[in-house]
Automatic annotation (TrEMBL):
It catalyses: H(+)(in) = H(+)(out). Residues 45-155 form the STING transmembrane domain. Keywords: Endoplasmic reticulum, Membrane, Nucleotide-binding, Transmembrane, Transmembrane helix. Gene3D superfamilies: 1.20.5.5200, Stimulator of interferon genes protein (3.40.50.12100). GO terms for biological process: activation of innate immune response; autophagosome assembly; defense response to virus; innate immune response; positive regulation of macroautophagy; positive regulation of type I interferon production; reticulophagy. GO terms for cellular component: autophagosome membrane; endoplasmic reticulum membrane; endoplasmic reticulum-Golgi intermediate compartment membrane; Golgi membrane; perinuclear region of cytoplasm. It is a multi-pass membrane protein. Belongs to the STING family. It comes from Zoarces viviparus. The chain crosses the membrane at residues 21-38, 44-66, 87-111. GO terms for molecular function: 2',3'-cyclic GMP-AMP binding; cyclic-di-GMP binding. It is found in: Cytoplasm, Perinuclear region; Cytoplasmic vesicle, Autophagosome membrane; Endoplasmic reticulum membrane; Endoplasmic reticulum-Golgi intermediate compartment membrane. This is Stimulator of interferon genes protein.
Length: 411
């Protein structure tokens, strides 16, 4: 069955926040406070030395990466791009790193050496930077899974992001604006889909990405009803490519049929097939995580799409309840009932008429006195507003004229 709104919020991963940054700032502040209490005279020297250790290591590792990129990949991966604008930033020689290292070196020079012997400071810097480069190259100091996941989500590099955007740009944005016209044409031939809450495309998103090509095989209470008229769109060199939707009749517990346009999210077939291929390196836990990211990304895309607004409904299916033979029909009916409760008919307000109070007692309309004596009667207040344009040329503003009589008391 489908997941409730609270269950979805607890299941769908939210974007990662700034708590690690806050914890890092708090930890750094506590450490700096401890250094100030223990040896305040060497604070700037220790801070400068720590910054140099943290920046020289990545810079040395960047030199190793730069050697590989320049010798073997400069033409194939960078296509002759400029060294300073592409190769150096790609290998870790960013402006922030270089600036931090330069300021730390200047601060260490001005503050003096924090260690008792000058040679110990430089030996520690060189040894730490070289060991960092070695451990980084061997993968000991590599990014964690959380960091990789955060980078992929922020930069939209997940498989789910690409599939969601492809599903929207290549399919939903093309067919959803035409859905209402297709349903109207279908209603002219069959008495279906004419009620409220059934004129949206229901998109099923199962967590296990297991999709059946026929819904009636998943649930006996779901029956194929027909296909909406085909939409032919010229796409990628194909003249009149056909896009179609299927209408299904869903039976409730009382045996009453409810027609709706429903289909699975087809990109989930790709995720399921990837999890079945060992060469893809895509297991079941990764597949489930990508399905949740696909749902979240597609929901965010559709919420900001003017072409698709109020024309769709995403239904997240929980695979834990698929043992129920009627879980799919129950999920669809629950969303149809929810739409019927949420939607209501907006009718134009009735046109008000100006009725005299005495008209309720007498059958004749009382006559109101004309305005200004020109024989015109006041118009009803319910008249629709109209625009009035003047053909006269605009006149300059008149200067203020003093008309106060200061000598009223003297005359």
């Amino acid at each position: 069955m489908t997941l409730r709104l609270q269950d979805q919020d607890a299941l769908i991963p939210r974007p990662r926040g700034t708590l690690p940054k806050v914890c890092a700032v708090a930890l750094a502040a506590m450490t700096m406070g401890g250094v100030v209490l223990l040896s305040p005279e060497r604070l700037f020297g220790w801070v400068a030395m720590a910054i140099l250790i943290l920046t020289l290591g990545p810079l040395l590792h960047g030199l190793c990466l730069l050697a590989e990129e320049m010798l073997h990949h400069s033409n194939t991966r960078y296509r002759g791009r400029r060294l300073l604008s592409h190769l150096l930033p790609a290998c870790g020689f960013g402006g922030k790193t270089l600036l931090a290292a330069g300021l730390a070196g200047l601060l260490l020079y001005l503050a003096g050496h924090p260690l008792p012997h000058k040679g110990q400071c430089w030996k520690l810097l060189i040894l730490t930077s070289v060991l960092y480069t070695l451990f980084k190259s061997l993968g000991v100091l590599g990014p964690s899974e959380v960091e990789v996941s955060d980078i992929c989500e922020v930069r939209k590099m997940n498989v789910a992001h690409g599939l969601a955007w492809s599903f929207y740009l290549g399919y939903l944005r093309l067919v959803l604006p035409r859905l209402e016209d297709s349903i109207k044409a279908f209603c002219e031939t069959r008495k279906a889909l004419c009620g409220r809450g059934s004129r949206k495309l229901l998109i099923l998103v199962p967590l296990n990405a297991n999709i059946s090509h026929k819904l009636e095989e998943e649930d006996n209470n779901i029956r194929f009803y027909g296909n909406l008229p085909n939409n032919e769109i010229d796409r990628a060199g194909v003249q009149g490519r056909v896009y179609k939707h299927s209408v299904y009749s869903v039976l409730d517990e009382h045996g009453e049929a409810h027609q709706c346009v429903v289909e699975y999210a087809t990109p989930l077939l790709t995720l399921h097939s990837m999890s079945q291929e060992s060469s893809a390196g895509f297991g079941e836990p990764e597949r489930r995580q990508q399905v949740l990211l696909f749902y979240r990304t597609l929901q965010e895309i559709l919420e900001h799409s003017l072409e698709c607004r109020n024309r769709y409904k995403l239904i997240l299916l929980n695979d834990e309840d698929e043992d129920d033979p009627r879980f799919l029909s129950k999920a669809i009916l629950r969303h149809l009932q929810q739409q019927e409760r949420e939607e209501f008919c907006l009718t134009p307000p009735p046109q008000q008429e100006m009725v005299h109070p005495l008209a309720r007692t007498s059958g004749a309309m009382p006559t109101a006195p004309p305005i200004g004596g020109n024989g015109r009667y006041p118009e009803p207040m319910s008249r629709e507003p109209t625009l009035m344009f003047s053909l006269d040329k605009p006149q300059p503003l008149k200067e203020p004229v003093e008309n106060t009589d200061h000598y009223r008391g003297k005359i």
